Amino acid sequence: MNRKIVEYLKMNEVEYKERFSLAKLSSVRIGGEAEILAFPDNLRKLVSLVTFLEKTKIKHKITGRMTNILFSDDKYNGVIIRTDRISDYQIDNCVLSVSCGSSIPYLASVLCKRGLSGFEKIAGIPGSVAGAIIGNAGAFGMDISSCLTTVTFFDYDTGEVITLDRKNLEFSYRTSAFKKMKTAVLSASFLLTPSDCLSVKAEMDKYKKIRKDTQPVGIPSLGSSFKRPGESIFAAKLIDECGLKGHIIGGAQISDKHAGFIVNIGNATANDYINLSEYVKKCVYDRFGILLENEVEFVK
Asked: Are 294 and 227 in contact (CB under 8 A)?
């Protein structure tokens, strides 16, 4: 398998690395070794690579900036496709058209300079556009789908590139139709609201300060570890009421600043993270009868 995929990557001018530690790229600094890590730098190469891997039945996983994915400590016997080099964008009046690997914080700063409002609340989400769309990422009561208009994706089953309106993609709290589909999100369009740079920056700064004051910014994590179990029920509050703030298993800890975050306080493994996550879920269920659902995706 290794020889076959390496030959393909060389022939199609896709940069790659062999036997690469995923912990080096993960925002929580956890993860085993990937047999191949590939870096397509445009959408054509991404679609071609996925098509080849599907046809040859080679295990693969598309990732953005690895801010919401926990990789196993074991070797990933396949190809990890990283899309962060596919990050071009265009702004036409109030419409932002952007490729899958673009950084949410970077786009927020670009929109701020253009005096366009819409990304202020999600500016602190460290992931990429595609990952945020798939999981309908959000913050401070706003989801990324709020200003989304269309999504273009590659359908593995039909081999077609398809564009659909937001209303046809089943967006709801931390999920979308993409969770059930075998696809690669390629690009998206957003409709922004005209404003001015100072007003947009003031809003961004406000939410940035809230994050800094209430969340473990600067400590390796994967963001919120658990979904909100109800409209006005917050996972962090339930965890805190179980007395779990600061609880440690191995190198993983329930943040003592925000109970909804599991952080890496030094040499944590994926098993540490998972074991702590399961312990939290058990404690919350035993006390409140509520089963928390992971917001982080686990990949073996």
From this structure: yes
Q: Are strands 69-71 and 297-299 parallel, antiparallel or unpaired?
A: parallel
Helix (H) or strand (E) holding 31: none
Helical residues (DSSP H) of the chain, grouped into ranges: 2-11, 43-55, 104-114, 129-134, 197-214, 235-241, 270-288
CA proximity to 108, closest of 23, 21, 197: 197
The pair of three-digit structure tokens given for residue 31, joined into one six-digit string: 């993860």
Active-site residue (options: 174, 211, 241, 297):
174
Give the distance from CA 182 to its chain's centroid: 17
User: pLDDT category, 63, cuts 50, 70, 90?
Assistant: very high
Query: Which of 224, 225, 255, 277 is an active site residue?
Result: 224
Q: Do residues 295 and 225 lie in contact, with contact meaning Cβ atoms separated by under 8 Å?
A: yes
State the amino acid at position 150 in one-letter form: T
Question: Which domains are assigned to the chain?
Answer: 2-82 (3.30.43.10), 89-199 (3.30.465.10), 219-299 (3.90.78.10)
Angle between helices 104-114 and 197-214 (to 10 degrees): 150
* pLDDT on residue 1: 64
Q: How far apart are CA 153 and CA 187, in angstroms?
A: 7
174 is catalytic: yes
C-alpha 59/C-alpha 273 separation (Å) is 24
DSSP 249: E
Cβ atoms of 209 and 120 closer than 8 Å: no
224 is catalytic: yes
CB 151 within 8 A of CB 166: yes
pTM of the model: 0.94
Tens-digit pLDDT profile for residues 178-217: 999 999 999 999 999 999 999 999 999 999 999 999 999 9
